């Protein structure tokens, strides 16, 4: 058998998918379940597609141990539409909510929420000369009379992450776009979890919302019906035509994850991958990551070439030589600069090892 060429893909999103998933999708592209059509060519209301949807949901529930009093919605519009949908559904009568601001994505959610009510800033990133970290629980100032607390457990752009779930009596809402399914979590600690699919779930076009039953019926009157959680839950996420092919691929990813041993098993590999990278960066005098150890993302590892942040030529050389070795998309987000290796579930330990080999060679050649 000829070996298929696959690069080591460190894209932040849309991100790489497991090869086994793509091969399965390829094999059944033209003739899915012996229907003589692809899955994207059939009605979302056909019994075949409804069975697919139910299996995908059941597998996700099993993987995340989602309690029965939570609904799982398969929606569109990306995480960004949830920046609006969350306040429109959960603000309730007092139209006030807590937000923790730890970076670009939580900040984006804050800006959107302000259009609909009052945002109480419950905490911010600590970004001083000697440390960059998320606020601790005792540094949070949560208004318990507000409707909910929103935060982003993993800030994809800067590579800053929470190592705890904020504790409060009001519902906790989390944007888990870049960390869902990467480690075990206790869903019952959250009122609502949302995630765009294109990092750890599947291709773009699908957004997952996991929402506790009692939060379904609070939408503001002007909330568009397509964004209304209650409506979507009643219609099994099929108020309109859902992104069927993305849903199908997400289902394949859930099956793949189960074959890997579930979230606990993938978490162990993710930890190994992150440890390898951070240990190497910390031990080197050439690469640097200045985020406090307790606030480092295990999904998005940002680093810079020491003392050369402004040295565009060196950064370019790093990226060009990495690409020549088929190590792709290591450039940091334009707002941060430097480098970023996104190491989601589909990125293998071997990919990370090849990146480390290259980093060592590159360093030694300077
Ligand atoms: C990628 C990302 C988003 C934006 O997702 P879209 O699906 O493009 O709207 C929001 N939040 C986080 C944490 C992300 O990583």
Describe the biggest sheet? Answer: 7 strands, mixed
Strand-pairing-aware structural class: alpha/beta
Q: What distance lies between the first and last C-alpha atoms, to the nearest angstrom?
A: 40 Å
Tell me the Rg in angstroms. Answer: 21 Å
Strand line-up of the largest beta sheet? 2-12-11-10-7-3-4
Bound molecules: pyridoxal-5'-phosphate
The total of beta strands comes to 16
Give the averaged pLDDT, no decimals.
96
Order of helices and strands: EHHEHEHEEEEEEEEEHHHEEHEEH
Molecular shape: globular
Low-confidence stretches: none
Number of helices: 9
Strand content: 15-25%
Helix-residue proportion? 25-40%
Structure description:
The chain contains nine helices and 16 strands. With 366 residues, it is of the alpha/beta class. It has a seven-stranded mixed beta sheet with strand order 2-12-11-10-7-3-4. It has a three-stranded antiparallel beta sheet with strand order 13-14-16, with helices on one face. Helices cover 34% and strands 17% of the residues. Pyridoxal-5'-phosphate (PLP) binds at residues 13, 78-80, 105, 152, 156, 175, 177-178, 196, 199.
